[in-house]
Design goal:
This protein is of the alpha/beta class. It is built from nine helices and five strands, in the order ααααβαβαβαβαβα. The radius of gyration is 18 Å and the shape is globular. 40% of the residues are buried.
């Protein structure tokens, strides 16, 4: 009996999703179409969360499942023809002094599901490392996530560094996490602030004229 991968993913039926993915790649199905169905399921969970119809735990689990899906399919993606062109580049990091990964991982997964190429530098990252990556990849968006109040000052340090190096006007800067606010957005000089991952995704899509 055919399995609707989108529905199974949106219902977080991990075992069914993994088994179906393995069956499809073994039969030679296009990897990008498989990823596309999983993305639709991931997006559905994100939209449900944005409407207050699901819990943060589901959002976390969906991000982990999507990552596991990509890990399984990665070897097949390399073997197949070129991938579709991403709609934009997003560079994300948790800056030095903070090792929290949750919010960053959630928005990274949702951005990937919506067609972005995401560069995740990890946690406890020095602003100079972010600067070097900006110069290397020329991203459309740069995002910082944190759960520690002192990290706002590090975000400002990073933004000031970008200005000094003449790159700040080349991308949109987003900040997020429970400790961010409109006041911290103003302090940092960010283009957008949110405590909601999906709001950040929709902002990026609007900037690119995708919605």
């Amino acid at each position: 009996m055919p399995v609707d991968l989108r529905i199974m993913f949106s219902e977080l039926k991990k075992d069914v999703v993994i088994e179906e993915i393995q069956r499809r790649v073994a039969s030679g199905e296009d990897v990008l179409s498989i990823i596309g169905e999983c993305k639709e399921g991931l997006q559905e969970i994100g939209e449900r969360f944005a409407r207050g119809e699901s819990y943060i735990s589901e959002l976390i689990l969906s991000g982990k499942l999507f990552k596991e899906t990509l890990d399984i399919l990665a070897p097949y993606m390399k073997a197949q023809a070129k991938e579709s062109k991403p709609i934009g580049k997003f560079l994300i990091a948790t800056l030095k002094g903070d090792i929290h990964d949750l919010g960053k991982s959630i928005i990274a997964a949702q951005l990937k599901a919506h067609g972005f190429e995401v560069y995740d530098l990890g946690v406890d990252i020095d602003p100079k490392v972010v600067l070097e990556k900006i110069k290397e990849i020329n991203p459309d968006f740069v995002g910082f996530s944190s759960l520690l109040t002192p990290n706002i000052n590090v975000m400002k340090e990073a933004a000031d560094l970008f200005i000094a190096e003449g790159v700040r006007d080349k991308f949109k800067l987003l900040i997020g996490g429970g400790i961010t606010s409109p006041a911290s957005q103003k302090l940092v000089g960010a283009d957008f602030q949110t405590v909601d991952a999906m709001a950040g995704v929709h902002y990026c899509l609007k900037v690119l004229g995708r919605e």
